[in-house]
Amino acid sequence: MTSPSTPRPGRNQPCHCGSGRKYKQCCLAKDEELAAAARAEAASAAAAAAEETSEAVASTPARTPKHQTQQPWKGTTSKGFASRPRMPRKVGGG
């Protein structure tokens, strides 16, 4: 997205249209509406481009499954870690 050629004035600065009013009371809402419309248009263009690339990616072959090893001690839920007793390290007053 490109930035505007002239920087926006501050909220309390005089408006750039020459009305003599503060920017926030004159053209701020209109400028924000235009910026929101430009962002929405850019987002829809990006979504369309992403959809085109996803169609191209979908045509590529799927991955091969992972190699299965014969390791019965590795359960599916333990993730290779041994269980620990839930006791505190130190017992007694300090």
In what range is the share of β-strand residues?
A: under 5%
Number of strands: 0
Number of helices: 2
The helix/strand class is mainly alpha
Multimer state:
single chain
Query: Percent range for helical residues?
Result: 25-40%
Major sheet: size, sense and barrel closure? none
Series of H and E elements: HH
Overall geometric form: elongated
Q: Cα-atom Rg, whole angstroms? A: 30 Å
- Note poorly predicted spans: none
* Average pLDDT level: 77
N- and C-termini, Cα separation? 63 Å
Characterization of this structure:
The chain is mainly α and 94 residues long. Helix content is 37%, strand content 0%. The chain has two helices and no strands. It has helices spanning 23-26, 28-58.
Describe how the helices and strands are arranged:
Layout: H1 23-26, H2 28-58
Short description:
With 94 residues, the chain is mainly alpha-helical. It is 37% helix and 0% strand. It contains two helices and no strands.
Q: Which properties best describe this structure?
A:
94 residues; mainly alpha
